[in-house]
Amino acid sequence: MGSEPIQSTKAAVLQRKRIHIQGRVQGVGFRPAVYRLATGLGLTGLVRNDGQGVTIEVQGATEVTVEFAARLTGDDKPPLARITSCVLGPIEVVAGEDQFLIVASQADGRPTSQVTADIATCRDCLSEMADPADLRYRYPFINCTNCGPRYSIVRQIPYDRPYTTMSAFRLCDRCAAQYHDVRDRRFHAQPVACPACGPRVWLADDKGSTVEADAIASIAKAAQLLRDGLIVAIKGVGGFHLAVDAFNEQAVRRLRERKRRDHKPFAMMAGSVDEIRRHAHVDQELESLLLSPEAPIVLSPKKAGSMIAPSVAPGTGTFGFMLCYAPLQHLVFEQGPPVLVATSGNISDEPLICDNAKALDRLGGVADAFLMHDREIYRQVDDSVMHVVEGHPVVLRRARGYVPTPILLRDTCARDILAAGSDLKNTFSLVRGNHLICSEHIGDLEDAEVFQHYVRSIDHLRGLFEADPKVVVCDLHPGYHSTQYARTLAYAGVQVIEVQHHWAHVASVLAEHQVDGPVIGLVADGTGYGTDGAVWGCECLVASLERFERFGHLEYFPLAGGDRAAKEPIRPLMGLLDKASGSGPSGCQWLLDRIEPDSDRQRIILHQLTKRVNVVETSSLGRVFDAVAAMVGLGSYNHFDAELPMALESVADPDVEARYPTEIRADGLGPVRLDLGPAIMAMVHDVGQGMLASQISARFHNAVAWGLLDMARLARERTGLHTAALSGGVFCNRYLANRLIGLLKAAGFQVLFNCDVPSNDGGISVGQAAIAAKVDQGHCVP
């Protein structure tokens, strides 16, 4: 087949084309795929990586070069490749050329090439790792061009071995032969290694002393420790996991105590989907996510009768499961417990640890042993978290497997942009050209170490993509650490733009769906700094990427105690009762006493409400969820963000169609308001009558969904818009999101919602960046 096109080109006029391809085309076997296709078609020329992607020159008969381009961008591209741009053009024919070559990479120009995310071990590598006759039998770092670490080990673009942490390991002759053989699956697989030349594994105690130096013995000993109920810190792809037998309640509790994580659910890891099915309901969509190359944590409904320790995920209706995705993890599961708690290797709320010395220093009092390796992790990356809404995979935490895959903007920006993000669940974003690159999950910036990690991460990503932001965009809230950081960058030539929080939420939806708006934006979360000085949290915006108008919102209620109100549901409850009853919350004293027995604390809050001391007006739907959860007896304190709303969702009966009454108030003097007062008083009555929490929760969820639908309908009547965009942390609630999306679609709306970026504050930087790109339109080229 390869010789026929060459013979035909002798009689035909030769044509040479340059093809420049951008997208996820480095580190995925793209150049060898180009080589094999070109030589198979009898074409000559070359292929090389550069800072923007891959450049190809092909020479041959016209019809053959056309076929080459069609097949390369179609079925013949590598499985992990994602092409975002393919530009072809004729160039001068090279006389006497008789072969096709893969030539050295070029790092000239500003890098815009996509860096591939870290990918789970592929089936071919797993088969080789299980084969006693294979070079890499039971080798914990087996990989190829279709799998393995990428983003976590790359120092700069282009993605070549000298620019990764694997540069510390010199290839042996056998690995070098595979690395340079274009026909091999490991051709230019940058992390390629074997037991003779690659990273090594060892087991250390909690003081750092080596317990086992041999890799196989270390893994066997670690597995035995896990079976014995001990805690083992296991170094993975993007950092350490703290692992313990998920069936051992005593061991799980010990991990909670040492990690200082009292209530938040732990993620778990298993070796197969069949094992996960023993403990959770896994439908086709969830199974596809679990088995995907990204291998995220997937939230799956709990199955009754599971032997998973109760302390793994208390107060929620789901388990967070992932499959093992690194070779070392697969080897541990061959001998260890069938399910492990695999939580981030850190002290609660601190950054993920990826350095060996720091792990021993910070986690020596947590883990009983450390399964270490010496492949440096240049970029710590936490596990991603996903669930399914309306049949669509939806990101809750975007990190390993998904970062730094960009969102493509419709316009190309001439100026680089940095979006600082929010303070909770922070991410930041960069815009380079038409690429919007959202960082991995950073965390809550209140913690000093997380903030320092945030600043370092910005410097790293800016350096990786050689970004020089001339526009910096941040939240409107003056007290945010991210906002204050952004303002420090307002030196000569740098423009700082402040964007209202909920507008950024809507814009994040518009950005990932590549639409400019306007749309009817329904945004629901805990808090956001409002343009009127109030604390916003349930908004109906008529918004585009250029401007927004506040069409409606949840009726304001008084919230006493500032930040303490996010922890203590008695505070929003008393404010809601004060607003709804018209006579103050004391008429429901029996309910208040049950939630907060401390009468002095009640008196202080009542005094604050009466005298309006340290009280803000708020439209926060998140705080309403807190209050309702407390009313039905699910808790009186949020130990972590959204603990009580998660509990309220977990008990809601999906078969209940009834709903509590709500009212839309429109007096023509300002935005329309959604009044939940009637629902609040009806719930007080039902709680007093002993109605089941599952019934009350479902009726409340349905009331919120119908109330938001009514507000959207009124916005449609007045604006003529038929597209609704949903965002905000409250829509991480699958019950509410599914119910509202279904109602909106039934009412004739086109519905957009966050899928590729989180609807919580992890998506704020994406919306900020998209708005800044549009605001900067005068500096943009089409």
Provide structural commentary.
This protein is α/β, with parallel strands linked by helices and 782 residues long. It has four domains: 100 residues, 2-Layer Sandwich (Alpha-Beta Plaits), CATH 3.30.70; 173 residues, DHBP synthase; 135 residues, Nucleotidyltransferase, domain 5; 234 residues, ATPase, nucleotide binding domain (Nucleotidyltransferase, domain 5), CATH 3.30.420.40. Helices cover 32% and strands 23% of the residues. The protein has 23 helices and 30 strands. The protein has an eleven-stranded mixed β-sheet with strand order 7-6-14-8-9-13-10-12-11-15-16, sandwiched between helices. A hairpin with a 2-residue loop joins strand 15 and strand 16. Helix 14 packs across helix 23. The chain is globular, with a radius of gyration of 28 Å. The chain starts with a helix and ends with a strand. The N terminus is likely disordered.
Structural category is: alpha/beta
Strand content: 15-25%
How many independent structural domains?
4
At the fourth level of CATH, the homologous superfamily of the largest domain is ATPase, nucleotide binding domain
How are the SSEs ordered, and which strands pair?
Blueprint: H1 3-11, E1 15-24, H2 30-40, E2 44-50, E3 53-60, H3 62-72, E4 82-91, E5 100-102, H4 123-129, H5 173-180, E6 201-205, E7 210-212, H6 215-227, E8 232-235, E9 240-245, H7 249-259, E10 267-270, H8 273-277, H9 284-291, E11 297-301, E12 318-323, H10 327-333, E13 339-344, H11 356-363, E14 369-373, E15 385-389, E16 392-397, E17 407-419, E18 429-438, H12 448-464, E19 471-475, H13 481-488, E20 495-499, H14 501-513, E21 519-529, E22 535-543, E23 548-554, E24 557-560, H15 570-581, H16 589-595, H17 599-611, E25 615-618, H18 621-631, H19 643-651, E26 663-665, E27 672-675, H20 677-688, H21 693-719, E28 723-727, H22 734-746, E29 750-753, H23 764-775, E30 780-781
Parallel strand pairs: 2-5, 8-14, 10-12, 11-15, 17-19, 19-20, 21-28, 23-27, 28-29
Antiparallel strand pairs: 1-3, 1-4, 2-3, 6-7, 6-14, 8-9, 9-13, 10-13, 11-12, 15-16, 17-18, 17-30, 21-22, 22-23, 24-25, 26-27
Helix pairs in contact: 6-10, 14-23, 15-17, 15-18, 15-20, 18-19, 20-21, 21-22
